[in-house]
Amino acid sequence: MRWFNRLVIRVMPVLPKSFVWIFSRRYIAGKTLEKAIGKSRQLNAEGCRVTLDVLGEDIFTPDEAEAEKEECLRVLEAIHDNAIDGNLSVKLTSLGLKIDRERCIRHMREILRSASEKNLFVRIDMEDATCTDDTLEVYTRLREEFPRTGAVIQAYLRRSPRDVSTLIEKGIANLRLCKGIYVESPAIAYKKKRKIRDQFAELIRMVFDAGGYAAIATHDGQMIRRSLGMIAEKRILRTRYEFQMLLGVTEKRRRELIRQGHGMRVYVPYGEHWYGYSMRRLKENPNMVGHIIKNLFIRG
Ligand SMILES: Cc1cc2nc3c(=O)[nH]c(=O)nc-3n(C[C@H](O)[C@H](O)[C@H](O)COP(=O)(O)OP(=O)(O)OC[C@H]3O[C@@H](n4cnc5c(N)ncnc54)[C@H](O)[C@@H]3O)c2cc1C
Predict the structure, then answer these.
(1) What is d(CA 132, CA 139) in angstroms, rounded to the nearest whole number?
(2) 59 CA to middle of ligand 1, Å?
(3) Which of 21, 169, 202, 273 stands 20 to 30 A from 282 (CA)?
(4) What is the mean pLDDT of the chain?
């Protein structure tokens, strides 16, 4: 299938955007905040919490970072005004982490102040490995001022158990745990599925043993079963974990977990930059083509 996935990625840029939208629309709430709020209302009615994500292009200027911050502030207003059961996910590079770190921190502080006034939670997404140190450093710094802030740890990174230990030592244990979506070098990241799953399970165990909150972000049936096993064995209360899934992915599995009474949060990306986002995701991870095509035919 690899050659087929790569072929699809090569022809995508020459196809009309409207055609690419057919592939992308299942995974993206729409181009506007209003669409994202509409989708969030629908998901809330189905028993899911949400986390909204503004799709950003790569940021090259301070003005672009400023615009991203303004949009994040609008998202928080909209969540609050529409009484959505949800929060915000933010990527620090969209606020200019790579062009002006101090300004990025100022933007993030403004976002967190607004969230805190509304009693809303903000999760800082984890990006590729060139951002890990900076993201964790900015996170730990801001979390002292704004406790309703969370980070993400990627199970494929060899360093992750050390990062989780360090965060736990600092008294922090509200973490989204996921496998990790970027293509990283084998020098720093595990490649074997089994090893990544084992480390994923180990990270969940560390958070539970520290008395923390685990947001278990996966669609992988095996990982979900292992998590449920640990939750049952350790008698973890439902207030101490939730599952998280991406919009449009494994909806049947999502409904099943909700039916069993587990907390579920859906990641709801939206924005004008849906095209760049879709293309980048596909290039980063060609296997997505297989998922997308399968999802066009097999619902749920
Ligand atoms: C809520 C949420 C937040 C995340 N945040 C981050 C983050 O901050 N940083 C980061 O690096 N990664 C993030 N990820 C992505 C994550 O790291 C994985 O790359 C992604 O979830 C796929 O891994 P999996 O555990 O679902 O297992 P996989 O083995 O990859 O997938 C299991 C099954 O789920 C289905 N599936 C998985 N992904 C898709 C898809 N995109 N489209 C269609 N079907 C799919 C397929 O049927 C697949 O067989 C996040 C994921 C979620 C759910």
Answers:
(1) 10
(2) 24
(3) 202
(4) 91
